Amino acid sequence: MARPFQRFMSGQPDVQPSLHMPMVYESVPVEQPTWDYQVLSVDAKEEGLLTVERLNELGKEGWLLIGMLDQGATGRSSQVHYYFVRQHLS
Q1: What string of DSSP letters covers the chain?
Q2: Looking at the whole model, is its pTM more than 0.70?
Q3: Per residue in 33-50, pLDDT tens?
C-alpha cells in the first residue's frame, strides 16, 4: 500500500518521499482582528512635537504610528496630528 500512496503524494510539495502517512488538512476559521485607533493632536508652536520618549511609551503600549498630518505645512494652522493603531485586545 505504501507504493501507490507514495506515487500519489509525490507531486505534493510539502510531502517528503519517505513519508508513508497521509497528511490531514483542516480548515480552521480565523477571526478577523479588530483595531483600536488613536489620534494625538498637538499645537507645534505651543507644545512642540511628540518626543522620542513619548513615542516609545506609546510603542510599549502597543501603538504603531501609521501617519501624521502637519497642518503647519499648509499655513492654515500649527496643529500636527499623529495617527496610531493597535490590535484590539479582548
Answers
A1: -HHHHHHHHTT-TT--TT--S---------PPP-EEEEEEEEETTTT-SPPHHHHHHHHHTT-EEEEEEEGGGGTS--EEEEEEEEEPP-
A2: no
A3: 899 999 999 998 899 899
